[in-house]
């Protein structure tokens, strides 16, 4: 399915109908995402099908949120932090939430790729050593691991992808 990615705009996007099957992620896009963006806590990007019937509001097929973060030096596996001074925190971009609507199966990979390439683009202006995600369960973990994310040493539900890995991906 061809998707267009846009920054969430409550005047343009139909937040109320979004249903990924996980109430807390539905609730976030419906009630918190816009507020948190205004507070500069994170930014939400939505995937919109390129063709849709709804006359007023565009359907949201999926979404993800991005914010800046950092990891403690000790959290990152040894082979991924060679030549970094141990006193440094590891600067990361964080995908706090990522979900797709149950009516749009098999687009999770496209959504994640858009997030990763947007982060790569930001890396031109601000140092980002890697991407951090919280995998809320084993299914989410397997999904991220498929793209090369690895477990952190001290929190196995947190996963990390070096920016170098994104550089090697085909856009
Ligand atoms: C996790 C989620 C985004 C995956 O979306 P999806 O549309 O099923 O993903 P895709 O079909 O595009 O899968 C992309 C790749 O990951 C793989 N994958 C997806 N789920 C997987 C799983 N549970 N185990 C192993 N691989 C998996 C797919 O096989 C696919 O690889 P392929 O292209 O080689 O076949 C989706 O299930 C979802 O929104 N779940 C609810 C919210 C959630 O759990 N979010 C994640 C953490 S906040």
Key attributes of the depicted protein:
seven-stranded mixed beta sheet, 26% helix, single chain, Aminopeptidase, 171 residues, 4 helices, binds coenzyme A
Quick description:
With 171 residues, the chain is an alpha+beta fold. The chain has helices spanning 23-38, 108-122, 138-145, 163-167; strands at 3-7, 13-14, 43-49, 58-59, 62-71, 90-100, 130-134, 150-151, 158-162. It has a single domain, classed as Gcn5-related N-acetyltransferase (GNAT) (Aminopeptidase, 3-Layer(aba) Sandwich).
The second-level CATH architecture is 3-Layer(aba) Sandwich
Share of helix, binned: 25-40%
State which percent range the strand residues make up. Answer: 25-35%
CATH superfamily: Gcn5-related N-acetyltransferase (GNAT)
Q: From N to C, what is the helix and strand string?
A: EEHEEEEHEHEEH
**Ligand catalogue:** coenzyme A
The side-by-side strand order for the widest beta sheet comes to 1-3-5-6-7-9-8
The averaged pLDDT comes out at: 95
Q: Look at the structure and give the CATH class.
A: Alpha Beta
Structure explained in plain terms:
Helix 2 links the parallel strand 6 (90-100) and strand 7 (130-134). The chain is elongated. The strands form 2 sheets. A 7-stranded mixed sheet has the order 1-3-5-6-7-9-8, sandwiched between helices. The protein has one domain: Gcn5-related N-acetyltransferase (GNAT) (Aminopeptidase). The protein is of the alpha+beta class and 171 residues long. It is 26% helix and 29% strand. The protein binds coenzyme A.
